[in-house]
Write a structure and sequence with these properties.
174 residues; alpha+beta; four-stranded mixed beta sheet; 4 strands
Length: 174
């Protein structure tokens, strides 16, 4: 809309719209005038991430934790799904999310991993032992976990479903 206003000669409205767009949308072009300060969307998550990292006693223990994550993020039929899911949980903690494993800890039919913050939520299903394409069963499991979240926390516009899967291709019926 800002571009249309600009083309019609309404530079003031165009500039104001572009400034607003830039503040709330990460992909908007930088405005030619006005404030270009961007709002930090999830300051609490940043604080959580810093607190999590500061919880390590020294650089060696931090490095060891990161190496363990990388070692356990293995896509292989013989790899441990439990260690993979633990690594995903720890990545969530590093990123400042409230990171849990509902399927393991609550036995409530929830997802393998759940990352939550005030601004967004991620339902994560881990398929690190799969050797075939993503299939309808994988998709149904994710949908079931999304429904679990809905029942437990209510509908959220910021909820995203994610499948960690070694194959980028999927079956035609997915």
């Amino acid at each position: 809309i800002a571009e249309i206003k600009y083309a019609k000669g309404d530079l003031t409205d165009s500039d104001n719209l572009q400034v607003l767009s830039y503040r709330i949308w990460d992909y908007a072009f930088k405005p030619r005038v006005g404030s270009t300060k961007k709002d930090i969307k999830d300051i609490q998550r940043i604080k959580n991430s810093i607190n999590y990292v500061n919880g390590f006693t020294d650089k060696a223990s931090l490095n060891s934790a990161m190496e363990k994550i990388l070692k356990n993020l293995v896509y292989d039929n013989d790899a441990s799904s439990d260690l993979f899911e633990e690594a995903v949980e720890n990545i969530g903690n590093f990123l400042g999310f409230h990171s849990t494993r509902p399927d393991k800890n609550e036995k409530s039919g929830g997802p393998d991993n759940l990352w939550m913050s005030n601004q967004c939520q991620y339902i994560i299903e881990c398929k690190n032992r799969e050797t075939n394409r993503m299939n309808k069963g994988d998709s149904k499991q994710l949908n079931s976990s999304l429904a679990w979240f809905d029942r437990r926390y209510g509908s959220q516009d910021t909820l995203k479903g994610v499948i960690f899967h070694p194959m980028s291709k999927k079956d035609l019926d997915v």
